[in-house]
Amino acid sequence: MTTGHRITVEPTDRHVRVTREGQVLAESDEALLLKETGCPDRYYLPALDVRVDLLTPSRTTTHCPFKGDAVYWSLPDAPDSVWAYPDPKEEVQAIKDHLCFYDVEVS
């Protein structure tokens, strides 16, 4: 990793529930908390705890020099609002098979 840039991934004892407009999209007691320099803290939830039936695969992909290549899914009226790293870099290998949500309520 680059000097000054830091990423940590740790289990959280918090029960994480992800909703959008009142609909539960995911709920987990096994979420991981990813903290990254210059970015908001993000919860990554195991794919098994996500309502993937509500997601539509997107053609969008991005590259992060610290985490790897991300793939995306969309929600109705929320394109590319869910992502995952299918083959994350070694430093963040724990987020493999986990999904993360953007612009949703986490409780």
Automatic annotation (TrEMBL):
Residue stretches making up the DUF427 domain: 16-103
Name of the featured protein: DUF427 domain-containing protein
Classification via Gene3D superfamilies: Domain of unknown function (DUF427) (2.170.150.40)
Record lineage: Bacteria, Bacillati, Actinomycetota, Actinomycetes, Kitasatosporales
Pfam families xrefs: NTP_transf_9
InterPro entries: DUF427, DUF427_sf
